[in-house]
Amino acid sequence: MLADIDSACTAAGVWPHAVFSGHAHNYQRYTRLVNAFQIPFMVAGCGGHSPLSSMRSTVRTPYKIDSTLTLESYDDTDYGYLRVIVNASTMTIEFHPQSDGGTTKTPDDLVTIKLAARTIS
Questions:
Q1: How far is CA 74 from the centre of its chain?
Q2: Order of strands, edge to edge, in the sheet holding 119-120?
Q3: Confidence at 23, pLDDT banded by 50, 70, 90
Q4: Residue 116 carries which DSSP code?
Q5: What are the residue boundaries of the structural domains of the chain, listed by start?
Q6: pTM metric for this prediction
Q7: How many Cα atoms within 13 Å fall on the side-chain side of residue 43?
Q8: Which of 6, 16, 92, 95 sits at 20 to 30 Å (Cα–Cα) from 105?
């Protein structure tokens, strides 16, 4: 699938600020370096399918997979959702686990993308 995304982006001459996926039944956030862009790849498939899928192993994050891809964060024990906040200069993506309850508003993970620079802060 990554080759298809790269091919489409190269052909169009446009790269996304973030990529969202939801098939895996857990939460994962990667940073991928493409040209000079830092692109978060979000897997948020923990919306309610039972059971949650465990990662193959427990790793300390950030975990560098190769020179262009790093696993920044994951949660394979909690159901949850993403909240995306966008303004003229930034996009912030938050992961909120359901286990925090209905009154907790602090995300367990977040990433902010500077839209003009295409970098993560």
A1: 9
A2: 80-86, 90-97, 109-114, 119-120
A3: confident
A4: T
A5: 17-120
A6: 0.89
A7: 18
A8: 16
